[in-house]
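Table S2 (text version). Query chain:
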Amino acid sequence: MTIVRPFGSLVPAIAPNAFLADGVVVIGEVMIGEDASIWYGCVLRGDMGYVRVGARSNIQDLSLCHMTHDDTVVEIGEEVTVGHHVIIHGARIDDGALVGMGSVLLDGVVVGEEALVAAGTLLPPRTMVPPRTLVRGHPGKVVRDLGPEEWIAGRDTARRYAELARKHALIRAQPPPTK
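Corresponding structure-token output:
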């Protein structure tokens, strides 16, 4: 079951064609853009600040978005891919970036446009990842610039996930099979 609910006067705003998978929890000041998809088991909690997810972005299974009270917010640009089981705590991810599975982005982190955060990366507070670079490690360090075939991966994956979300929505709308 998907849970979408206000927190006091803070009310979610979800585009009509956004996809929320079963098991998603959206609470408080959360804005989800056109054709965005939030996948199974994700939590987006806008009770201490806001969470904004841009158009055609996807947040994959078991990821979490939250922030520190009165200090940071979560801003996810357009055509961003956030891999499975990612923690985004008060961070900003710019358009077209890709955040690999199991990564942790802490308060004040900024991931530049079309950057790639490798799977399992830990980005400490206030880390700045330049556009179109690869960052990886514990703590994350920029290791090199990305080539065009690499930096486009975030946007390509986002487009594929927008299509996949449409398929999931259609399947969910169908009646269950009978025996």
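Notes on Table S2: The helical segments are 148-151, 153-173. Residues 153-173 form the longest helix (21 residues).
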